[in-house]
Amino acid sequence: MGRYFAIRIGRAALTIVLVVTFAFVVLRLSGDPALMILGPEAPPEVIAAFRKAWGLDDPIWFQYLDYFSAIAQGELGRSMRDGRPAIQLVLERIPATLALTLPAFFFKVALGVPAGIYAALHRGSSIDRAVMMTAVAGFTVPSFVLALILVLVFAVQLGWLPSGGQDSWRHAILPIATLSLGGAAVLARFTRSAMLEVLGQPYIRTASAKGVPWRKVVTSHALPNAAIPTVTILGFMVGTLIAGAVVVESVFAWPGVGRLLVVAVANRDLAVVQCILLLVAMTMVTSNLIVDFLYGFLDPRLRAKGAHA
Amino acid sequence: MSPLVSIAGLHVAFNGVPVLRGVDLALGKGEAVGLVGESGSGKSVTWLAALGLLPRHAKVSGSVRLDGRELLGAPAAELDLVRGGRVAMIFQDPASALNPVLTIRKQLCEALALHRDLQGEAVKAEAKRLLDLVGIPDAARRLSAYPHEFSGGQVQRIMIAMALAGNPDLLIADEPTTALDATIQAQILELLSAIRREMSMAMVLISHDLGVVAENCDRVAVMYAGRIVEQAPSNQLFADPVHPYAQGLIGALPPLDGPRRRLTAIPGTVPDPAHMPGGCAFAPRCAFAAEPCGLAAPRLAPIANDRTVACIRAEASRRALLGMAAE
Question: In Å, how far are A104, A204, A209, A212, B262 from B79, measured between CA atoms?
Fold first, then answer.
């Protein structure tokens, strides 16, 4: 068991290093932060001074080593725009993002999982078809389109809710709805197919054949098995709590991590972008680790493999 | 004596395609009946339909009576008491027949709690007794293991223990040894007959292995394309099969003694259930088929004490067989 997790943690660390490296290289190859921040009209000596101040003159491998040695000391760099520590800028935005993504996560699960289970249990019924059609629509429509439709209906036409900003809880309703609907659709589809897969297994027939009432067959035989694949997708959703709302925050002018990322990328504010990506990679990897751990808890077959590995 | 189970005119169709086309079968208390036939002939479907275990889109009609009580269309609560309580069933692939995420104790005790008036420690003690009975060593400790920690043969033993939990009057064993090694097969069959004798329980042994059925059953019913075409006491069926299909099945078995002979194969293939020939379903493959065979499906009719056959050319085929034996 210990080794099973040691391997996984090692892999997780490697993933983070790769993500950060990739971001580092791509950001430095895709435009000059000095020009972006100071503007093309800035005098050449100002630009040169800026480059020197931020170490942009050094060879890229030197900058890279420098960056990693700074990270190792807990130093994530400063914003090139206002000189504040990048981590501080990012941490300030996290509560706003979580104010959208946490309720959205709750609604995704509360809507998607029961809808998927219900559809699977009533396969082929009109409710199943309705759930599936909604789900397909929910996950093929891009979130910015859904966001705009919601704005058009509830903000423009009906005038019930504000179309953007962060002044009151009412401002959060449309962004949360946008995030929830798409996620619930994915989860409903996934839960339904996991459930159908399990309901077709011989052990379900065995349970019925020994006289277990259908309701109990579903709750104590089917659900624990269907939970195993569903946990994967839930883990993925937990991983997107920090930066899963980039598009939605942009559409609704919500000052969260996602919008900070968009602005920072546009400005080539390297330290901020790298800091966000590091954080995203870490949440993703952590939630994957939690999923791996939950697998071991939910599936005794994996537990055994872990013990022998 | 009134039969324990009597099935009459049982029809099953999946999406409009008939799979069972009028099955009639009766079973006495404590009797062991073999059900043979090739894959798709409807052996398993007959019993899944009888116990209401088919998926909802299956259309079932006819009559299945247990001690005179109609099971088809019975309320779910009543069926739940019958399933596992009066009629238990074990399946072909034991490895996937037990729930992989629940311990053996949980699965055994579930059956005990449903059908036996036992509480607390008594349930656990009985679960252990059942595992001992089916020959799982170190039963007390093994109760907390999961299905994947047992071998295929052991899992089938656990399935049998679970089936016995409700003290059933009838055990349906659906190809119980097909997925197992030959040596394990013999052990499981031995266990089944021993338990049957001890508990004076009736058994239906579904198999495509004629040898298995011959050794373990009092009576055999041969199924073909969704119907029973012949039934007879085991020894009589093997010595003197009447239906041309039954003859074909037995002719395809190598004899253990006597001179070596060429095994005969039944020509052609099983008809597609969606395009059944009119009349006798076996006629297109039958050496004795005559014109009337294509007109109407023959009904099971008695030809001797305790023997029935569904073939209008029974006499001709029987004469041919006797003639061959005389040569």
Answer: 43, 16, 10, 10, 49
